[in-house]
Amino acid sequence: MHEIGMCEGLVELIEQQAGGRAVAAARVRVGARHAVVDEAFGQAFTLAAAGTTVQDAVVELVITPMTVGCRNCGERSESVDTLAVCPGCGDDGVDISGGDELVLESLTFATSGAAGGEVSGVPWHSR
């Protein structure tokens, strides 16, 4: 389950960005090539965040597609399937690009009695 390693790095980055503040929510963009399973990611994040300022955060996972270009018919399309084939002709001779990003898009901080603050666009790469 590679999601654990991703989430350990993510929690570390969130804690650095939070500077001791409690985090209410985080939005993470992960490319389809990472083959992240939503449920496994949620469980891994819960384990990695236990006992930290991030432990109560709600994480929104956004999976971004990769571009599939067919060498046979030339069709280009987007897919979140890591075993993509051309949707036009069914050929498996495809070139794949994109869909490899890992980005902490935003954080929302928990506050008592006031609106939470937000930090956006923090690039993050797994180990």
TrEMBL record:
<dbReference type="GO" id="GO:0051604">
    <property type="term" value="P:protein maturation"/>
</dbReference>
<comment type="similarity">
    <text>Belongs to the HypA/HybF family.</text>
</comment>
<feature type="binding site">
    <location>
        <position position="86"/>
    </location>
    <ligand>
        <name>Zn(2+)</name>
    </ligand>
</feature>
<feature type="binding site">
    <location>
        <position position="89"/>
    </location>
    <ligand>
        <name>Zn(2+)</name>
    </ligand>
</feature>
<dbReference type="InterPro" id="IPR020538">
    <property type="entry name" value="Hydgase_Ni_incorp_HypA/HybF_CS"/>
</dbReference>
<feature type="binding site">
    <location>
        <position position="70"/>
    </location>
    <ligand>
        <name>Zn(2+)</name>
    </ligand>
</feature>
<keyword id="KW-0862">Zinc</keyword>
<keyword id="KW-0479">Metal-binding</keyword>
<feature type="binding site">
    <location>
        <position position="73"/>
    </location>
    <ligand>
        <name>Zn(2+)</name>
    </ligand>
</feature>
<dbReference type="InterPro" id="IPR000688">
    <property type="entry name" value="HypA/HybF"/>
</dbReference>
<comment type="function">
    <text>Involved in the maturation of [NiFe] hydrogenases. Required for nickel insertion into the metal center of the hydrogenase.</text>
</comment>
<protein>
    <recommendedName>
        <fullName>Hydrogenase maturation factor HypA</fullName>
    </recommendedName>
</protein>
<dbReference type="GO" id="GO:0008270">
    <property type="term" value="F:zinc ion binding"/>
</dbReference>
<dbReference type="Pfam" id="PF01155">
    <property type="entry name" value="HypA"/>
</dbReference>
<feature type="binding site">
    <location>
        <position position="2"/>
    </location>
    <ligand>
        <name>Ni(2+)</name>
    </ligand>
</feature>
<keyword id="KW-0533">Nickel</keyword>
<dbReference type="GO" id="GO:0016151">
    <property type="term" value="F:nickel cation binding"/>
</dbReference>
